[in-house]
């Protein structure tokens, strides 16, 4: 167990550093893009190639490759070992290159067809008014280029809109009241803008003299539109004048596809990086592969400050700097692994993969494994695709909640699962069933001990955490509330999400990839049905609820399937431990909730230090209660981790 704690602990430290940098990246992104249309388009575009990182770097490829690599290491020669690795890498390069070229070519052809620009648009809906407060500010205090148009629009505002604009800065008694105030302003302005665009031609050369009109809008104007087409061109004129405040699904989709075309080659880069990391893990190196994400996040943050200012004047133009940063970050992550690979004896050369037996075995194991290990990641993509069609802001809000979930899930769940795969594979190869069960059970104990309180803290402190981390720049109080609501429904599933990784690794160590695949297919279908059912009435909260419910179903089916495969998991003694941890987490949650409400009522959250205290004072109180109760109950993970920390402190003093 000490080996598990030390190996996974070192990797967890590297993962924690990387995940913290990932959180910093999301904070910078929120400051730079907010939670509007551009943020939604970038998030979905990045999610598609990033899915391959989740599947390969933390899932199916390494789950299929490591057991085979360990077998070659044990039974074959070094030449056979490295030839097998080169064959797998060659196959990845060939297949991923073909997929990348086809996807990029397909996107280019679709965009060149002009299909999106040719679809007429109806009047505005509420979701098309993205940043209503910014729109109100530009109507009241326009710059020189917008002054004639702003004056024209202001003269046609209803009294209810004027009143909503005057009172938008009034202090509301609660965050919910502020959201209601903003929604009221959005509805009134939407109605007035629709009155303007349906009451005759909007274009006037003097009114739009300094407005940059898009080619699509100009082409429609030249056709002298009438009727529904006139409404369409009037709407496009307003979107050209206020591109950050007003938008439509056609422009959102076009921006998302243009960003995806730039970022999709990241898939090829990260596929190769995944194999590099798998080789190093199999050879006993866990720290360096885990730090790869640190390089990636650092480069992506740098792209915001160093490259974006040179990419144009508007956010729609500057966001492409972030897409370029993704590619550079992927290359940096791959290059980081090479020195350690060379020390192990790896030297890449092309090996034809088409008839290679190792490649065939990896593919056979990997195809079902892609679905088996990656249920959570595919769930995210399915949900976000559906949400993008409902309201792109939902994608950004939900993405922020997912990023917060990934910190404890990555530090404890994925780090532990990464350590367990080669360990369980060796035990399975040597037919040591009792040690296999014991190692798996110990991993489950430590995961529950770490992630139960994390789940409670994320749920109870969802809005204060969002406010502390993301409420800067374009990300406002309404965004904090909406993203926090998503986290409240997603956080209860943290333990289930993490356990899926652990149990899937157990199946892969046993050479079984079909069982997780079948279970995940069922859970993916369940998640899709639940997402479609919940997203309209509950919006981002419905996405969190659907993911939590499908994850609980997934881990339940995996547990009973594994028990049928290897016999009883010897959980009799652990039922007491689980009950003690649940009780400790419940008490800690009550203490955290009480401390949070006291802080909100007596101190508030105005200013950075008060926001910091709003999160960490209740969390510290709850954490001390949780650890104290777990130690009092003599829960083994609490005692083992405490003993390890005490030993390190004593050595540092000596």
Mean of pLDDT: 83
Q: If helices are DSSP runs of H or I spanning 4 or more residues, what is the number of helices? A: 26
Percent in strands: under 5%
Overall shape: it is globular
What is the total number of structural domains? Answer: 3
SSE string, helices as H and strands as E: HHHHHHHHHHHHHHHHHHHHHHHHHH
Distance between the termini: 25 Å
Rg, Å, rounded: 27 Å
Concise account of the structure shown:
By secondary structure, the protein is mainly alpha-helical. It has helices spanning 2-33, 37-57, 60-75, 78-112, 132-140, 147-154, 159-166, 175-197, 215-222, 228-241, 249-263, 266-282, 287-307, 315-343, 357-373, 375-390, 392-429, 433-460, 462-470, 477-490, 494-509, 514-538, 540-566, 572-602, 608-632, 636-653.
Structure in words:
This protein is mainly alpha-helical. The protein folds into three domains: 2-110 and 253-570, no CATH class; 126-247, no CATH class; 572-654, no CATH class. Helix content is 80%, strand content 0%. It has 26 helices and no strands.
């Amino acid at each position: 167990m000490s080996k598990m704690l030390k190996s996974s602990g070192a990797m967890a430290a590297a993962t924690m550093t990387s995940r913290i940098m990932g959180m910093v990246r999301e904070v910078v992104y929120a400051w730079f893009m907010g939670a509007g249309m551009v943020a939604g388009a970038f998030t979905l575009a990045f999610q598609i190639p990033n899915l391959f990182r989740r599947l390969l770097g933390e899932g199916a490829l390494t789950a299929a490759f490591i057991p085979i690599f360990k077998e070659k290491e044990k039974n074959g020669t070094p030449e056979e070992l490295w030839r097998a690795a080169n064959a797998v890498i060659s196959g990845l390069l060939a297949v991923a290159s073909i997929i990348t070229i086809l996807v990029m070519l397909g996107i280019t052809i679709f965009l060149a067809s002009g299909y999106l620009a040719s679809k007429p648009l109806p009047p505005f809906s509420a979701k098309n008014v993205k940043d209503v407060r910014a729109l109100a500010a530009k109507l009241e205090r326009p710059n020189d280029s917008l002054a004639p148009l702003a004056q024209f629009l202001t003269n046609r505002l209803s009294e209810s809109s004027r009143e909503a604009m005057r009172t938008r800065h009034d202090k509301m008694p609660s965050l919910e009241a502020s959201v209601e105030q903003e929604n009221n302003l959005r509805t009134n302005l939407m109605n007035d803008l629709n009155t303007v665009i349906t009451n005759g031609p909007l274009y006037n050369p003097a009114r739009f003299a300094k407005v940059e009109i898009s080619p699509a809008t100009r082409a429609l104007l030249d056709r002298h539109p009438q009727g529904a087409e006139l409404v369409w061109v009037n709407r496009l004129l307003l979107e050209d004048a206020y591109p950050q405040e007003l938008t439509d699904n056609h422009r959102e989709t076009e921006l998302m596809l243009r960003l995806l075309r730039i970022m999709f080659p990241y898939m090829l880069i990260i596929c190769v990086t995944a194999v590099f990391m798998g080789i190093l893990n199999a050879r006993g190196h866990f720290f360096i592969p885990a730090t790869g994400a640190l390089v990636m996040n650092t480069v992506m943050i740098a792209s915001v400050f160093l490259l974006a200012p040179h990419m144009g004047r508007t956010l729609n133009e500057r966001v492409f700097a972030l897409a370029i940063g993704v590619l550079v970050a992927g290359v940096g992550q791959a290059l980081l692994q090479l020195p350690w690979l060379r020390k192990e004896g790896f030297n890449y050369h092309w090996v034809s993969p088409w008839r290679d037996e190792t490649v065939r075995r990896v593919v056979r194991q990997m195809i079902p494994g892609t679905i088996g290990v990656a249920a959570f990641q595919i769930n995210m993509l399915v949900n976000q695709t559906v949400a993008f069609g409902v309201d792109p802001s939902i994608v950004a809000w939900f993405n922020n909640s997912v990023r917060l979930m990934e910190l404890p899930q990555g530090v404890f769940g994925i780090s532990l699962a990464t350590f367990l795969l080669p360990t369980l594979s060796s035990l399975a190869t040597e037919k040591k069933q009792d040690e296999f069960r014991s190692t798996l059970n110990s991993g489950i104990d430590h995961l529950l001990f770490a992630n139960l309180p994390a789940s409670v803290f994320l749920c109870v402190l969802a809005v204060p955490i969002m406010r502390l981390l993301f409420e800067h720049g374009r990300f406002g109080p309404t965004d904090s509330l909406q993203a926090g609501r998503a986290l409240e429904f997603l956080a209860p599933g943290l333990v289930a999400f993490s356990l899926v990784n652990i149990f899937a690794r157990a199946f892969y160590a046993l050479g079984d990839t079909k069982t997780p695949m079948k279970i995940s297919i069922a859970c993916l279908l369940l998640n899709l049905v639940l997402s479609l059912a919940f997203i309209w009435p509950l919006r981002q909260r419905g996405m969190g609820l659907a993911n939590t419910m499908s994850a609980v179903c997934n881990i339940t089916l995996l547990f009973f399937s594994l028990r049928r495969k290897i016999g009883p998991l010897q959980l009799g003694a652990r039922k007491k431990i689980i009950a003690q941890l649940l009780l400790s987490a419940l008490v800690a949650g009550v203490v955290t909730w009480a401390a949070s409400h006291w802080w909100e009522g007596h101190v508030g959250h105005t200013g950075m230090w008060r926001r910091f205290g709003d999160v960490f004072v209740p969390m510290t109180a709850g954490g001390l209660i949780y650890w104290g109760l777990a130690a009092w109950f003599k829960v083994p993970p609490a005692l083992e981790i405490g003993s390890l920390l005490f030993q390190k402190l004593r050595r540092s003093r000596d």
